[in-house]
Each structure stands twice: as structure tokens, then as C-alpha cells.
Amino acid sequence: MRQVAWKNVARGQGMQVKQFVDYVDNKVWLDWDMFYGFSVEEKLSRLCYCVLQLSKSGNPFGLKIPGIKIPPNSGKAHKNKLLQALAMYGSD
């Protein structure tokens, strides 16, 4: 009853319902801190798995690991860039 457009009803325009939209950023970030308590190798493994799974969806996602922040994007080149960043983590 709270979502009924009462002004429209009063004007004789019939019973209508208000719809509310919440605009949310649909970009996903894979963050190093998502895996608190895991070893470095476990974090890298899980992040790699997430990259592979998310790349199948085609939705943009980014990566935040210590010293590296790659903004959300999608596509094969982006997936390879993220996987390379994970593979090279800790090497100088």
C-alpha cells in the first residue's frame, strides 16, 4: 500500500505502483584482503581462481593486491593482465 501512487489514483488515472531503483556500481573488485588468514600462496591461488571464473561472465572486475591496483575491465587481455600480475607477485 505504501508504494501505490495515490496522486495518480486521485486524478483518476487508475491504480499505479511506484518503483524505486537503487543504482549500484556493478563492478567487482578482487581484493587481497578478502582472504584474511590465508598464506600468500593460498591467497594467490584463490585470486587466480576468481579471475578465471569472473572472466567467464564478461562483467568488469578489477584486482587489488599489495603494490598493484588494476581497475575494472573485461576481456581476454584484461584476464591475462590480472593473471600475469598474480603470477609475478613477489618477484622484483
How would you describe what is shown here?
- The chain has 92 residues and is of the alpha+beta class.
- The chain has a domain at 24-87.
- The protein has helices spanning 6-10, 40-57, 76-87; strands at 28-31, 61-65, 68-73.
- It has a three-stranded mixed beta sheet with strand order 1-2-3, with helices on one face.
- The model has no long low-confidence stretch (mean pLDDT 85).
Query: DSSP strand (E) fraction?
Result: 15-25%
The helix/strand series, from N terminus to C terminus, equals HEHEEH
Terminus-to-terminus distance: 62 Å
Number of distinct beta strands = 3
Separate helix tally: 3
Percent helix, as a range, is 25-40%
- The residue ranges in which pLDDT falls below 50 over 5 or more consecutive positions are none
> Radius of gyration over alpha carbons?
22 Å
Supply the helix-strand structural class: alpha+beta
Mean pLDDT, to the nearest integer, reads 85
Quick one: biggest sheet? 3 strands, mixed
Question: Largest beta sheet: what is the strand line-up?
Answer: 1-2-3
Shape annotation: elongated
Question: What distinguishing features does this structure have?
Answer:
3-stranded mixed beta sheet, single chain, 92 residues, alpha+beta, 3 strands
Care to give the gist of this entry?
Helix content is 38%, strand content 16%.
Chart the SSEs and their pairings.
Elements: H1 6-10, E1 28-31, H2 40-57, E2 61-65, E3 68-73, H3 76-87
Parallel strand pairs: 1-2
Antiparallel strand pairs: 2-3
Helix pairs in contact: 2-3
